[in-house]
Amino acid sequence: MNLTFLIPSQTIKSDTKKTVKSVVGGQERVDVLSRCLLNLSRWNRRLNSEINFILYLSSPDEQQAFIIPISSLELELKSEVDSTQELIKILSKPEESGVSKENISFINLIQKLSKDSKLYYLTPDGLEVSELQIKNNQKEKACFVLGSQYDLIEEQEALLSKMGATRISIGKRNYLASHVVTIVCHHLFLRK
Ligand SMILES: C[S@@+](CC[C@H](N)C(=O)[O-])C[C@H]1O[C@@H](n2cnc3c(N)ncnc32)[C@H](O)[C@@H]1O
């Protein structure tokens, strides 16, 4: 199975100076995405699957996607400090981490992904995740879209619904994005 997690962020900027200290202190809420990166790298090590993480900077002056094939990261991320350092490096010098950066609108990105992946949108009022059936074989490609510290904006949600994304829920409460990716991976790979 080839899995992609796409998370748009309205607050992260590509060209501001960031340090581990400023990020753990909440700068632009890069910390939310750094925890997602850490969890996905742990899942990638555990599983025989390809996991991609797409961080989409969605503010009007950014509109760019950082496409991160988790297995291309050289360092084993062991802690939040490691993932924060890695994400700061990815944002400033993506090519050094095997990451591709693309200037692209959210609409074009979703249209591109929908060509070869089935789209899922994570939201508390979707279909129960336990009902999700994705075959664990090399042909299957799934792309899960979720919010960061904020939910997706209305236009993004409307686009996903227009593109036929299936709404998936992990429960009625609001969970942190990093917990959402972990629960989805757990469901897909470890459920009995
Ligand atoms: C931290 S939440 C976003 C903000 C949050 N909705 C709030 O009210 O502050 C991060 C994202 O995880 C996903 N998510 C959170 N809880 C979920 C749930 N129970 N089921 C499915 N997805 C969920 C949604 O895509 C959400 O935008």
Topology:
Elements: E1 2-9, H1 20-24, H2 30-46, E2 50-57, E3 64-69, H3 80-92, E4 100-103, H4 106-116, E5 118-128, E6 141-145, H5 154-162, E7 166-169, H6 177-190
Parallel strand pairs: 1-2, 1-6, 5-6, 5-7
Antiparallel strand pairs: 2-3, 3-4
Helix pairs in contact: 2-3, 2-6
The structure holds S-adenosylmethionine (SAM).
S-adenosylmethionine (SAM) binds at residues 122-124, 146-147, 149-151, 169-171, 173-177, 180.
Give your account of this protein's structure.
It is a single chain. The protein has 192 residues and is an alpha/beta fold. The chain has one domain (2-190): 3-Layer(aba) Sandwich (Alpha/beta knot). The chain has helices spanning 20-24, 30-46, 80-92, 106-116, 154-162, 177-190; strands spanning 2-9, 50-57, 64-69, 100-103, 118-128, 141-145, 166-169. A 7-stranded mixed beta sheet has the order 4-3-2-1-6-5-7. The longest helix has 17 residues, at 30-46. The protein is globular, with a radius of gyration of 16 Å. The mean pLDDT is 94. Bound molecules: S-adenosylmethionine.
